[in-house]
Structure formats: C-alpha cells, structure tokens
C-alpha cells in the first residue's frame, strides 16, 4: 500500500501536541515529509524549546502514524525546536542578537519576581534555548548574586560589553559595574532609564532566543519609560495571593496593556506553604487570587509556586532551584511555567522583520 504526503498530513491533523493543545498540522510543525515505498519519514519542528520531551513527542507521532496508516513500514519522526522572532510594541527599536524579549514584572516588591525570573530563564535554557538575563532593577540589582557571578564584564569594540555567563545564561546587570554590593544607586528617573538602555543595547548578546528582563517593581514613571523603550515581545506578571499584592499586580498588567505590550500570563508565587516538620499545608497569603485575576482580565494563569525555604537558600547560594535540584518538584513546576511562556510566545503569529524597506530616491 502506498501513501501520499496528503495522507500523512491528514493523519497528523488528528494528533494533538500535548503541550500546545493544538494539532501538529495547524501548528505548522510538520516538515519534510518523505515517502519511500511503505516507509515514511518526517520532521516535527516545534516553535518552543522542549528538549526534555522530544523523545516523548517522537514516540507519540510514530505510534499515531503506524495506527493511522495501515500497512505502513518504517516510520521515523525527527523532533527539533526552532524559536523565531515575534512582534514588539509599536515604535520600539529592536535589539541586535535578540529574537524575543520577555519582561518579568510585579506591581510591588517582595513577591519573588527576581527569583521567578531567573528560574524561568534557567528552565528555558535547560530545554535547549539560548537565553539571556537582563537585570533591569537598577536600584536593587540581585541577579549577580542569584547567578553566582562576580567581577566585571569585558569590553568589545569600543563601548560594547560582553555578557557575563554562568549556568548556561548570558547576563548583564548594573551590579557588575558598581564597586560593591553596598553601593546605593542614588539616581533620578532619567538616569535610570539611560542606564538600562546602555545595558540593553551596548551588550553584545550572542544569538539569543529569549532575553528575560527582570524589571523593577512598581508602575511609576521609570517602569512606564522602560516598558515603552524596551522592545518587549510579552510580559509575565508575578504576584502572591495576598489581596494587596494582587491589587498592585493588576496595575502592572494594565500598564503593559496601555503601552501595547502583550500579556503572556500571570504566575502566582508563595501560593502555599508545606511545613517541613509535619507536612501541614497552609495558604498563608490566601488562595485563588492569581486565577481570579486572570479570569477578570482574560489572561492565562501560568502556574503557582510554593513558599519554600529551599528556593530562598538555593537562590542565595548562586544556584537557583532549576540548577540546584533540576529533577525536583519545584524545578519541574518552573519548567512547566517556562514551557507555557515559550508556547504563548510561539503562538504570537505576527513576526517582526529585521529587513528594512528599500528606499529609492528619484529625480523629478
């Protein structure tokens, strides 16, 4: 029995990607179908990093085609991932060497935004993406400590800096440029905005799929200027279930909407605490707040994370949870959230072009 490319496409229209919840054909993942006699080979190219589940998806595709194509011989599916660039808010200048910029923000401090940001970045890198971290919290840079990086960046080509690296991430922070951790940044808003622009655009980012930007907390003039000037693909809002945190998180969400930045979703941190002595679970800051916020604003609830002493200890040591305990339950949750973020970015259909229009001047 012979098969056609249309037969293979038709069979895969009924197979759902367990991560995107869409079929592989409409998701434009099916490539290079080749048929030789009764043997079929094809490529499945995912739009999101998913190295840990490539084998699982390959097995699903091959098993499905063997059932859907009676009489088929050998079936071989090669699964890979390819991340492409997507649209940013109107008027924002793109950054060389960066495909997508994801802002991680919060309406207020103390909700674990920076810890969430670094673990999301590390989770994306663990799935095979090229990832950078920009510490945009000029007043309180914490990423150097969280990444376990010390020293100052090298320069390249005059005013450009090479990103610092650790745990597979490229990183830049004002913390790399000041003399010590106790030095306060006593700057007014315009100086902060200019400093961030220098860190973003005068760093030689090396072919990043994602640049995670750890924004300072709040929704004031500085945050608004940053949201307008940084070419953001989408924003992730971090909150706790506490009413006061949710109130400020809603303001942060609205700020991004006003400047035309798409909301990827909401992460609820410190959702529950499990006593390390007796195992009792308690919702110290309340429950269900993040999900209700998402329902009110038609945003996606990306997941919740526990209040756990190990997260604090691991991050303070310079080895965040995704690195320190990659197979643990908390790291798995970070990876699930990161994968959902990457899928949401991949589903943004409009891609920005790096090709400028040709300008022709004619004499009249």
Describe this structure in words.
By secondary structure, the chain is of the alpha/beta class. The chain is 33% helix and 20% strand. It folds into two domains: 5-81, GMP Synthetase, Chain A, domain 3; 98-346, P-loop containing nucleotide triphosphate hydrolases (Rossmann fold). The protein is built from eleven helices and 15 strands. The strands form four sheets. The chain has an eight-stranded mixed beta sheet, with helices on both faces. Strand 6 (155-156) and strand 7 form a beta hairpin. The N and C termini lie far apart (67 Å). The model is unreliable at 350-364 (pLDDT under 50).
Shape: globular
Number of helical elements:
11
Summarize the main sheet.
8 strands, mixed
**DSSP strand tally:** 15
Task: Report how far the terminal alpha carbons are from each other.
Answer: 67 Å
- CATH class identity of the largest domain: Alpha Beta
CA gyration radius, whole angstroms: 22 Å
Q: What's the architecture of the largest domain in CATH terms?
A: 3-Layer(aba) Sandwich
Structural class: alpha/beta
């Amino acid at each position: 029995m012979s098969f056609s490319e249309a037969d293979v496409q038709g069979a895969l229209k009924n197979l759902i990607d367990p991560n995107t919840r869409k079929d592989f054909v409409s998701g434009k993942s099916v490539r290079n179908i080749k048929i030789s006699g009764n043997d079929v080979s094809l490529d499945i190219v995912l739009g999101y990093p998913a190295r840990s589940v490539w084998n699982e998806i390959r097995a699903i595709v091959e098993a499905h085609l063997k059932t859907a194509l009676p009489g088929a011989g050998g079936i071989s599916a090669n699964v890979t991932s390819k991340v492409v660039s997507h649209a940013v808010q109107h008027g924002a200048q793109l950054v060389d060497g960066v495909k997508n910029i994801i802002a991680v923000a919060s309406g207020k401090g103390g909700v674990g935004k920076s810890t969430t940001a670094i673990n999301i970045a590390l989770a994306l890198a663990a799935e095979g993406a090229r990832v950078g971290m920009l510490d945009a919290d000029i007043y309180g840079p914490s990423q150097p400590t969280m990444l376990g990086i010390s020293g100052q960046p090298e320069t390249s080509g005059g005013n450009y800096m090479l990103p610092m690296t650790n745990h597979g991430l490229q990183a830049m922070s004002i913390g790399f440029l000041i003399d010590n951790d106790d030095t306060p940044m006593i700057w007014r808003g315009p100086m902060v905005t200019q400093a961030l622009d220098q860190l973003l655009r005068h760093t030689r980012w090396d072919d990043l799929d994602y640049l995670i930007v750890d924004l300072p907390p709040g929704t004031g003039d500085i945050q608004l200027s940053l949201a307008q000037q940084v070419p953001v693909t989408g924003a992730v809002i971090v909150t706790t279930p506490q009413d006061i945190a949710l109130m400020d998180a809603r303001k942060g969400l609205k700020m991004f909407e006003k400047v035309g930045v798409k909301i990827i979703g909401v992460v609820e941190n410190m959702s529950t605490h499990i006593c390390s002595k007796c195992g009792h679970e308690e919702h110290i800051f309340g429950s269900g707040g993040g999900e209700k916020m998402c329902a009110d604003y038609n945003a996606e609830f990306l997941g919740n994370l526990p209040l756990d002493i190990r997260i604090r200890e691991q991050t303070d040591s310079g080895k965040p949870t995704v690195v320190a305990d990659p197979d643990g339950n908390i790291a798995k949750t970070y990876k699930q959230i990161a994968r959902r973020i990457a899928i949401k970015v991949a589903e943004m259909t409009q891609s920005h072009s790096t090709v400028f229009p040709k300008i022709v001047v004619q004499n009249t």
